Amino acid sequence: MVMRMFRIETEVDKERSLLLRSLLREANAAASPVLGELRGTPADQHVPLHVWVLDEDGALVAGLDAYTWAFWLHVDMLWVAEPHRGAGLGSRLLAEAERLAHEERECRASRVETWDFQAPGFYRLHGYDVVSVIPDYPPGIKEFTLTKRLG
After folding, report:
1. pTM for the predicted model, two decimal places
2. I need a surface site. Which of 71, 120, 135, 143 has the fewest CB within 10 A?
3. Please, which domain of life does this record's source organism belong to (predicted)?
Protein backbone atom coordinates (compact mmCIF):
# COMPACT_ATOMS: atom_id res chain seq x y z
CA MET A 1 0.00 0.00 0.00
CA VAL A 2 1.37 3.41 -0.96
CA MET A 3 0.84 6.16 1.59
CA ARG A 4 0.16 9.63 0.26
CA MET A 5 1.15 12.86 1.94
CA PHE A 6 -1.06 14.32 4.61
CA ARG A 7 -3.84 16.43 3.22
CA ILE A 8 -5.05 19.28 5.39
CA GLU A 9 -8.36 20.93 4.58
CA THR A 10 -10.32 23.69 6.23
CA GLU A 11 -13.50 23.20 4.23
CA VAL A 12 -15.91 20.45 5.22
CA ASP A 13 -15.97 17.44 2.92
CA LYS A 14 -19.28 15.95 4.08
CA GLU A 15 -18.79 12.64 2.29
CA ARG A 16 -15.33 12.08 3.80
CA SER A 17 -16.53 13.26 7.21
CA LEU A 18 -19.42 10.77 7.14
CA LEU A 19 -17.03 8.01 6.08
CA LEU A 20 -14.68 8.86 8.94
CA ARG A 21 -17.58 8.84 11.43
CA SER A 22 -18.79 5.48 10.08
CA LEU A 23 -15.35 3.87 10.26
CA LEU A 24 -14.77 5.11 13.80
CA ARG A 25 -18.21 3.92 14.91
CA GLU A 26 -17.52 0.47 13.44
CA ALA A 27 -14.18 0.28 15.24
CA ASN A 28 -15.77 1.42 18.50
CA ALA A 29 -18.61 -1.08 18.18
CA ALA A 30 -16.11 -3.90 17.57
CA ALA A 31 -14.05 -2.88 20.62
CA SER A 32 -16.95 -2.33 23.03
CA PRO A 33 -19.83 -4.75 23.51
CA VAL A 34 -22.05 -1.93 24.81
CA LEU A 35 -21.50 0.20 21.71
CA GLY A 36 -21.90 -2.87 19.55
CA GLU A 37 -25.34 -3.50 21.06
CA LEU A 38 -26.37 0.06 20.19
CA ARG A 39 -25.55 -0.36 16.49
CA GLY A 40 -28.68 -0.17 14.37
CA THR A 41 -30.95 0.93 17.23
CA PRO A 42 -32.57 4.36 17.60
CA ALA A 43 -30.17 5.09 20.50
CA ASP A 44 -27.24 4.87 18.06
CA GLN A 45 -28.36 7.99 16.21
CA HIS A 46 -27.51 11.58 17.10
CA VAL A 47 -31.02 13.03 17.18
CA PRO A 48 -31.38 16.80 17.55
CA LEU A 49 -33.56 18.17 20.33
CA HIS A 50 -34.44 21.88 20.31
CA VAL A 51 -36.69 23.82 22.68
CA TRP A 52 -37.52 27.45 21.85
CA VAL A 53 -39.32 30.35 23.47
CA LEU A 54 -40.56 32.88 20.91
CA ASP A 55 -42.32 36.19 21.48
CA GLU A 56 -45.60 37.14 19.79
CA ASP A 57 -43.66 38.34 16.73
CA GLY A 58 -41.74 35.07 16.43
CA ALA A 59 -38.45 36.52 17.70
CA LEU A 60 -36.23 34.22 19.75
CA VAL A 61 -36.44 34.96 23.48
CA ALA A 62 -34.73 31.81 24.76
CA GLY A 63 -33.55 28.51 23.38
CA LEU A 64 -31.89 25.20 24.06
CA ASP A 65 -29.98 23.18 21.47
CA ALA A 66 -29.19 19.58 22.33
CA TYR A 67 -29.08 16.09 20.92
CA THR A 68 -29.63 12.59 22.24
CA TRP A 69 -27.33 9.63 21.70
CA ALA A 70 -26.71 6.35 23.55
CA PHE A 71 -29.49 7.06 26.05
CA TRP A 72 -27.93 10.43 26.98
CA LEU A 73 -29.08 13.99 26.49
CA HIS A 74 -26.21 16.30 25.52
CA VAL A 75 -27.03 19.98 26.03
CA ASP A 76 -24.97 22.06 23.60
CA MET A 77 -26.40 25.53 24.20
CA LEU A 78 -28.90 27.19 26.49
CA TRP A 79 -29.51 30.94 26.17
CA VAL A 80 -32.04 33.44 27.50
CA ALA A 81 -32.26 37.05 26.27
CA GLU A 82 -31.10 39.54 28.90
CA PRO A 83 -34.53 41.15 29.58
CA HIS A 84 -36.01 37.71 30.34
CA ARG A 85 -33.28 36.33 32.61
CA GLY A 86 -34.31 35.49 36.15
CA ALA A 87 -37.88 34.68 35.13
CA GLY A 88 -37.36 30.91 35.08
CA LEU A 89 -37.21 30.45 31.30
CA GLY A 90 -33.82 28.68 31.42
CA SER A 91 -35.10 26.31 34.08
CA ARG A 92 -38.23 25.56 32.07
CA LEU A 93 -36.23 24.97 28.87
CA LEU A 94 -33.88 22.58 30.65
CA ALA A 95 -36.73 20.74 32.39
CA GLU A 96 -38.61 20.30 29.09
CA ALA A 97 -35.51 19.01 27.29
CA GLU A 98 -34.83 16.55 30.12
CA ARG A 99 -38.48 15.43 30.12
CA LEU A 100 -38.53 14.85 26.36
CA ALA A 101 -35.19 13.06 26.44
CA HIS A 102 -36.26 10.79 29.30
CA GLU A 103 -39.89 10.08 28.40
CA GLU A 104 -39.73 10.00 24.60
CA ARG A 105 -36.13 8.93 23.93
CA GLU A 106 -35.44 6.77 26.99
CA CYS A 107 -32.42 8.82 28.03
CA ARG A 108 -31.00 7.88 31.40
CA ALA A 109 -28.72 10.86 31.94
CA SER A 110 -27.77 14.31 30.72
CA ARG A 111 -24.46 16.12 30.25
CA VAL A 112 -23.40 19.69 29.57
CA GLU A 113 -20.20 21.67 29.26
CA THR A 114 -20.12 25.26 30.51
CA TRP A 115 -17.49 27.84 31.34
CA ASP A 116 -16.90 29.27 34.80
CA PHE A 117 -18.42 32.66 33.85
CA GLN A 118 -21.51 31.06 32.29
CA ALA A 119 -23.71 28.70 34.26
CA PRO A 120 -22.08 25.98 36.41
CA GLY A 121 -24.13 27.22 39.37
CA PHE A 122 -27.35 27.09 37.34
CA TYR A 123 -26.77 23.45 36.42
CA ARG A 124 -25.82 22.52 40.00
CA LEU A 125 -29.12 24.03 41.16
CA HIS A 126 -30.87 21.70 38.72
CA GLY A 127 -29.22 18.54 40.07
CA TYR A 128 -26.11 18.35 37.90
CA ASP A 129 -22.80 17.25 39.39
CA VAL A 130 -19.38 18.43 38.24
CA VAL A 131 -17.44 15.47 36.80
CA SER A 132 -14.50 17.37 35.33
CA VAL A 133 -12.89 20.77 35.24
CA ILE A 134 -10.45 21.78 32.51
CA PRO A 135 -8.42 24.80 33.58
CA ASP A 136 -7.26 27.35 31.06
CA TYR A 137 -9.67 26.23 28.31
CA PRO A 138 -9.66 28.74 26.70
CA PRO A 139 -6.80 30.59 28.42
CA GLY A 140 -7.91 32.16 31.70
CA ILE A 141 -11.22 30.28 31.77
CA LYS A 142 -12.31 26.95 33.31
CA GLU A 143 -14.58 24.56 31.45
CA PHE A 144 -16.88 22.41 33.58
CA THR A 145 -18.50 19.15 32.50
CA LEU A 146 -21.59 18.33 34.54
CA THR A 147 -23.89 15.31 34.46
CA LYS A 148 -27.27 14.38 35.90
CA ARG A 149 -29.25 11.15 36.14
CA LEU A 150 -32.71 11.49 34.61
CA GLY A 151 -35.91 9.91 35.85
Report:
1. 0.85
2. 135
3. Bacteria
